[in-house]
Amino acid sequence: MPFVALRGPTLRIVLDTNVVISGLLWRGPPHRLLEVIEQDEDIEIVSSPILLRELAIVLNRPSLSRQMKRQKLSAASLLEKYAEAVELVSPASVARIVPDDPDDDHVIAAAVAGGADLIVSGDKHLLGIGMYQGIRILQPADAVSLIMA
């Protein structure tokens, strides 16, 4: 499917928490995706209060503190910067879609509520679905390739 068929005037993307964390703290496809999004004013990131709460919890894990200290970053500053960059939506309901990981249902709910075109995740449960209600679910590298096409 050509990329132009996927997007209208604005491409709306939901980023799973694993992609956000990887993109903010390490180099690689998730980081490249965040760079591409930042440079293209026709791409909007959609999120929800639950996804932002999950991001806050993960950013405050001790296992990430060394990486943040190395880069002179804090969980609070990263969360604030990301929260300012997203359009916040509040899903009316969260349907049971991902049988093996109910937390992933919140990613899909945010995408549906926000009229997203794309979900980007590294999670095998979401990636295994491939598409939900016309919303494609891709890995970061595939999303970059699609956007750059």
Describe the structure.
The protein has one domain (3-148): 5'-nuclease (Rossmann fold), CATH 3.40.50. Strands 3-2-1-4-6-5 form a 6-stranded mixed sheet. The protein is an alpha/beta fold. The chain contains 9 helices and 6 strands.
Topology of this protein?
Layout: H1 3-6, E1 11-15, H2 17-25, H3 29-39, E2 43-47, H4 49-59, H5 62-70, H6 75-85, E3 86-88, H7 104-113, E4 118-120, H8 124-129, E5 131-132, E6 135-138, H9 140-148
Helix pairs in contact: 2-3, 3-9, 4-6
Provide the domain count: 1
**Shape estimate:** globular
The proportion of residues in beta strands is 5-15%
Which whole number gives the mean pLDDT? 91
State Rg.
15 Å
Strands in their spatial order, largest beta sheet: 3-2-1-4-6-5
Output the keywords.
single chain; 149 residues; Rossmann fold; six-stranded mixed sheet
In short:
The chain contains nine helices and six strands; from the N terminus they run H-E-H-H-E-H-H-H-E-H-E-H-E-E-H. The protein has a single domain (3-148), classed as 5'-nuclease (Rossmann fold), CATH 3.40.50.1010. Helices cover 54% and strands 15% of the residues.
